[in-house]
Automatic annotation (TrEMBL):
The gene is idsA2. Its cofactor is Mg(2+). Belongs to the FPP/GGPP synthase family. InterPro entries: Isoprenoid_synthase_dom_sf, Polyprenyl_synt, Polyprenyl_synt_CS. GO terms for molecular function: (2E,6E)-farnesyl diphosphate synthase activity; geranylgeranyl diphosphate synthase activity; metal ion binding. Keywords: Magnesium, Metal-binding, Transferase. Residues 221-267 are annotated as: Disordered. This is Bifunctional short chain isoprenyl diphosphate synthase. Its EC number is 2.5.1.10, 2.5.1.29. GO terms for biological process: isoprenoid biosynthetic process.
Length: 291
């Protein structure tokens, strides 16, 4: 685990530095409340692991000793900020008062400040992508998909497994895909490799979302770190609510997506590195996680 912890420390250090440089102080406090209150940092880790699996090298004591390393870490932090911005909006829509075991942004600061917090997170994120046109395009496309997914969830309830899977692809898979593609872009991978890494991560994201739905229906709120039963209460699209799948059957569906992710990863032009093994482990983990 030391391997992963070193990379997570790179993300945390850069994330803290980016947030500390924001203004005014009130905004800094809100951004830090949202982004430094915990979180699994799955998406930034996907970005860094994809970077190394595609042949990139994290050099220098803080991983910022070369342009590829700097880009990889900045892209990893940026995708985490985009994700956090989306969570702020999710909590407003769902009226969720708890996120990662602490008050959600709107519960802590009010609706208006929460919205500006989300905007601030996005602004900081795009400043980290701005030096690379491919990175900007990748994240912009993911944001379009995410927005369409959020809108669909609000106004057009999916009524079939196929419609649910498309929603999961947009709502969760898109940011996972962007994370992996950003890592591959930082490593200067070719278009085919970037796409293969993206397909891997998109499938992981869909599996993650399916498992998230199962946990919402079955887990204990204290163990999960956020309220449970929200999908049913809010009449929100959930694989458990939309289909006739039992939680066990839904978990098996997540396993199918995980297997597809592994197939896509094997098709990518990866180098022989520990990073590939950890990407494989992630595809397995999202199916069995308890938080």
């Amino acid at each position: 685990m030391e391997y992963l912890e070193r990379r997570r420390a790179l993300v945390e250090s850069r994330l803290e530095a980016v947030l500390d440089a924001t203004e005014p102080d009130a905004m800094t406090d809100r951004l830090e409340h949202v982004s430094l209150s915990g979180g699994k940092r799955v998406r930034p880790m996907v970005a860094l692991l994809a970077f190394e699996a595609a042949g990139g090298e994290l050099v220098g004591e803080d991983g910022r000793g070369s342009e590829p390393s700097r880009n990889a870490i900045d892209f990893a932090v940026g995708i985490e900020l985009v994700h956090n911005a989306s969570l702020v909006v999710d909590d407003i829509i769902d009226e969720s008062e708890l996120r990662r075991g602490v008050d959600s942004a709107w519960a802590a600061f009010g609706y208006g400040p929460a919205i500006t917090t989300s905007d601030g997170l996005l602004g900081e994120a795009f400043s980290l992508f701005s030096a690379d046109p491919r990175a900007m395009r990748t994240v912009a496309e993911a944001m379009v998909e995410l927005g369409e997914g959020e809108a669909t969830e609000l106004v057009e309830r999916p009524d079939s497994e196929a419609a649910y899977m498309e929603l999961a692809r947009r709502k969760t898979g898109a940011l996972f895909r962007a994370a992996a593609e950003l890592g591959a872009i930082a490593a200067d991978a070719d278009t085919y490799a970037v796409d293969a890494f993206g397909q891997y991560a998109e499938r992981v994201g869909i599996a993650f979302q399916i498992r998230d739905d199962v946990l919402d229906a079955t887990a204990d709120a204290d163990d999960l770190g956020k309220p449970t039963g929200q999908d049913a209460e809010m009449e929100r699209p959930s694989v458990v609510q939309i289909t006739d799948m039992s939680p066990d059957e839904a978990n098996e569906r997540a396993r199918t997506e995980s297997d597809a992710a592994l197939s896509s990863l094997s098709a990518a032009d990866t180098v022989d590195s520990e990073a590939v093994g950890y990407l494989e482990d992630l595809a397995e983990f999202v199916v069995v996680r308890e938080r």
